[in-house]
Design goal:
By secondary structure, the chain is an alpha/beta fold. The chain is built from 21 helices and 21 strands.
Length: 791
């Protein structure tokens, strides 16, 4: 019925826009239809609650399992009735309720019960379970209910559940008659007895009087329980002095009939309580719901993120929900037919009328699609999992998706209507590793497209889910995910981006030309529209390849982006410096890149994220764990190049680490030309001596004596660079397999007068270094391998 009224409302609005006039009947519809929609919202919510309870009842009850992997929700049973309500639909919430029909609010924010919204906040800490009320016919929406054995003592069972919970949440509210309060007070004292302070949380909901009764009764009951336990020789901690209910900043803004969560009480070391007040009156908003949304974004979210850090383990969801491709095709087809209908309808209309219609449809259709998509994706948060610190994920888990082929065991479920062979509505996948442990779904970033191969492990099966003719089909498959362009070099992305840009520009120009030749609005517009879509597609591909090129060169993944092509690492003498214009960064890197001739990608170490891009690619060493990052990356580099100059503190550690991890033939020391070259080389030898002294505890005397860096020649070059030398490179020092240093000085190239001498000099340097760059292992006699001196 609500769908019919919404369609009628949209039809009347379009009719008024096209006719540019409004009759009394149309005005009556425009006023009455929104009122009827809001009135119907109350009945819709009752039906939703009843359907949810029936589905929960059909699923049965399951007691929580696992140690510190769930959240236990405890409360007086008298609170269930008040938290089963939902926000009012009229009054101050009239516009909010009306906006909910058109997708401008998340469905769970208004239609869900207050307990469901509370549990939605607590699910950040894990799956929430609650003891079901004895004798209830159907479980209420919210926490997952499980039931204890009726007529038997329940204290031992609840005590066991409390000790195994990751977090215990207790509703700190007692009804005026105090019926059933003793059970909640016992659970409160038992939580203090068994758990650490960071694993107990009190929730203040409802009115102040209920909390004050809990506060007074808790102190009284705690003293009584402490006396009982002292007789058995067990001592309780000192009773926590629960704080008073804080006053709101603007009491006149407080309203009833809205989500009644007022705050939480958390405990520090020594059971020192703190009331964290969620004050909706302190936030701005036209409606109570708008003020709560700002409170949740500014106050609740920050508290949850901070509180989560003190709990054991980490929470994640191993479930991925998506629209089925058949549903996407149906929605796309419907939207295309709507566009065709409008093209036929608005012949002769003005541009203002056409834009008005398009804007009205966009305001209704796009938020509705976003709402449905968010509803699908938020369904995955209903099944959180907890991974403890001692449960290290496998190498193919969610931490490294796609690295070398990640393997997943996937339970793949598809919701179809009507029947098993009907239209696919939704697809849900639950991921686990090959040992059966849940893991995060693989990353599907457009920056790193993946190729997925699957093998069927369990034949498809189907079962009805209980509503209409919907059928859930499921199967178990093994997914192997690899990066699609893992073997492409960085230059290949640049070439592909250029071709995509050329095609995008050509398609765009062709579409403009065809638009200018179309006589009117008819189906001939289809071809330029297709060209525009193609242009956008190739433009997106160009942008993606450019971003991937930037990621590979500036923020590489280790070791995936280093092993995709030969890499050489240039150890910057001052990696933490902010000025990249020094001679060791500008001229030397330029000549090294030119001398390499594209045989490898040259990367420079950078420990400053603000460092402006230079000619070389980067190996960022950021954070406190930069040493482990460098140690992991070094074995994957073909060469490590060290400049012959004084080294900073970080560079000294990097040089000794390279000498420790790599064979001597993969180290290369470059000698710069200039008047200061000899003095700089002396500083290099002093820096290496200092680096060995700084790492004396890590590098033994034997390793130090046998290191190739300890055998550097005293004077590598007999004289300075000759006159007319135009290159920044003057020579290199390379090492044989046994660590013997060899000095290679470049010859001067004679050039004609007026000719730029740098280019022929670089070509001569490239030719001289070619045997070294071709194979990092020199021949046995110490000379580079050449055609006349084969290995």
């Amino acid at each position: 019925m609500s769908g019919i009224l919404m369609s009628l409302f949209a039809f009347v609005c379009l009719r008024v826009i096209f006719q540019r006039a409004i009759s009394w009947t149309e005005a009556f519809y425009l006023i009455v239809i929104p009122i009827n929609l809001v009135v119907m919202a109350r009945a819709d919510r009752r039906v939703d609650r009843l359907v949810t309870s029936e589905l929960r009842g059909g699923q049965g009850s399951r007691r929580p399992e696992g140690d510190e992997s769930y959240v236990l929700y405890l409360r007086p049973f008298t609170v269930d009735g008040s938290l089963a309500a939902a926000d009012d639909v009229g009054g101050r919430n009239f516009l909010t309720t009306l906006a909910d029909y058109f997708g401008y609010r998340h469905p769970g924010e208004l239609t869900s019960t207050w307990e469901s919204r509370l549990i939605g906040l607590l699910q950040r800490f894990g799956q929430v379970f609650a003891v079901g009320r004895p004798g209830e016919s159907l479980p209420l929406p919210g926490a997952r209910r499980f039931y204890l054995r009726p007529g038997e003592p329940w204290h031992d069972d609840v005590s066991e559940l409390i000790s195994g919970a990751r977090l215990v949440v207790i509703v700190a509210s007692i009804a005026p008659d105090s019926m059933g309060a003793d059970g909640t007070l016992w659970e409160y004292t038992e939580s203090i007895r068994l758990l650490s302070p960071s694993r107990v949380l009190l929730v203040a909901v409802g009115e102040r009087a209920g909390y004050e009764r809990f506060r007074a009764d808790a102190a009284r009951y705690y003293r009584t329980r402490a006396e009982e336990l002292s007789e058995t020789g067990e001592e309780l901690p000192p009773p926590p002095a629960l704080p008073a209910w804080p006053a709101p900043r603007r009491p006149a803004r407080m309203r009833t009939g809205v989500f009644p969560m007022r705050g939480v009480i958390r405990f520090a070391d020594g059971w020192a309580p703190e009331f964290v007040h969620f004050d909706t009156s302190a936030e701005r908003g036209l409606t109570p719901h708008a003020r709560w949304r700002r409170t949740a974004a500014r106050q609740v979210k920050s508290f949850i993120e901070e509180f989560e850090k003190d709990l054991p383990g980490t929470v994640f969801s191993g479930i991925e929900a998506r629209w089925h491709w058949q549903s996407k095709v149906l929605v796309t087809t419907f939207m295309a037919l709507a566009v065709v209908f409008l093209l036929k309808l608005w012949d002769g209309r003005s541009i203002a009328e056409r834009l008005t219609v398009l804007a009205a449809l966009a305001l209704v259709a796009l938020p509705a699609l976003a709402r449905l998509t968010r509803l699908i994706h938020d369904g995955t948060s209903s099944f959180p999992k907890v991974r403890m610190p001692d449960e290290e994920p496998d190498s193919v888990s969610a931490e490294t998706p796609g690295s070398g082929g990640a393997r997943y065991i996937v339970l793949e479920s598809t919701l179809r209507w009507p029947g098993r062979f009907g239209i696919g509505l939704q697809k849900v996948r639950s991921y686990s590793d090959e040992n059966g442990r849940p893991v995060l779904p693989p990353t599907r970033s457009p920056l790193w497209p993946m190729t997925t191969r699957k093998t069927l492990l369990l034949p498809p099966q189907a079962e009805p889910i209980g509503l209409g003719r919907n059928v859930l089909c499921y199967q178990v498959v093994r997914y192997v995910q690899t990066e699609r362009d893992a073997k492409l070099r960085s230059g290949s992305f640049l070439v592909r981006a250029i071709f995509s840009l050329i095609i995008a520009i050509g398609a765009f120009v062709g579409a403009i030309i065809m638009f200018s030749n179309v006589p009117g609005i008819d189906f001939s517009l289809l071809f330029p529209l297709l060209l525009l879509l193609a242009s956008g597609r190739f433009l997106l591909s160009c942008g993606r390849d450019c971003r991937r090129l930037g990621a590979i060169t500036l923020t590489p993944r280790i070791p995936q982006d280093i092993t995709r092509e030969p890499n050489a690492l240039y150890l910057h003498p001052r990696p933490a410096a902010t000025d990249p214009t020094t001679p060791w960064e500008s001229g030397l890197l330029r000549d090294l890149i030119a001398a390499a001739g594209g045989k490898f990608l040259l990367r420079g170490t950078a420990m400053n994220s603000d460092l402006s891009p230079s000619r070389a690619a980067r190996l960022p060493l950021l954070g406190d764990d930069w040493r482990s990052t460098l140690s992991t990356a070094l074995p994957h580099f073909r060469f490590v190049i060290v400049p012959a100059c004084g080294l900073g503190v970080e560079a000294r550690w990097q040089v000794t680490e390279a000498a420790r991890l790599l064979p001597p033939s993969r180290l290369l020391i470059v000698l710069r030309s200039g008047d200061e070259a000899a003095a700089e080389y002396v500083r290099l030898r002093q820096s290496i001596q200092q680096a060995f002294d700084e790492r004396a505890a890590e590098i033994s005397e034997f390793d130090r004596a046998g290191s190739c860096l300890a055998r550097l020649p005293v004077v590598p070059l007999a004289a300075a660079a000759p006159d007319g030398w135009h290159a920044a490179l003057q020579g290199v020092i390379y090492f044989t397999d046994d660590g013997t240093p060899q000095v290679l000085r470049f010859d001067l190239v004679d050039t004609d007068d007026g000719e730029d001498g740098r280019k022929p000099q670089i070509l001569r340097i490239r030719e001289t270094l070619r045997p070294i760059f071709a194979d990092p292992a020199p021949s046995a006699d110490g000379s580079p391998r050449t055609a006349s001196n084969p290995a």
